[in-house]
Amino acid sequence: MPAGSVSPNDRFRRALGMVFAVAGLVWLCLALYNARGDGRFNWSGLVPFLVLIAGMSLARSGRPRG
Questions:
Q1: 16-20, 29-33, 41-45: segment of lowest average pLDDT
Q2: Per-residue DSSP letter, 44
Q3: Is residue 3 part of a domain?
Q4: In a domain, 12, yes or no
Q5: pLDDT higher than 70, residue 47
Q6: Do the domain assignments include residue 66?
């Protein structure tokens, strides 16, 4: 495969990563909005942040090399 081309698998991985990143970002914003004024640390607010990071790394892994 030439250096500049992208395989369908990489394209799918990148698209899936972007979906996870956007979903994690929306989820994080909603979690922060719902947690305001609570005053205590909520571990469930960490989950959307981890989904966001996983989606971003998955999207980056789908980029062409070379």
A1: 41-45
A2: G
A3: no
A4: yes
A5: yes
A6: no
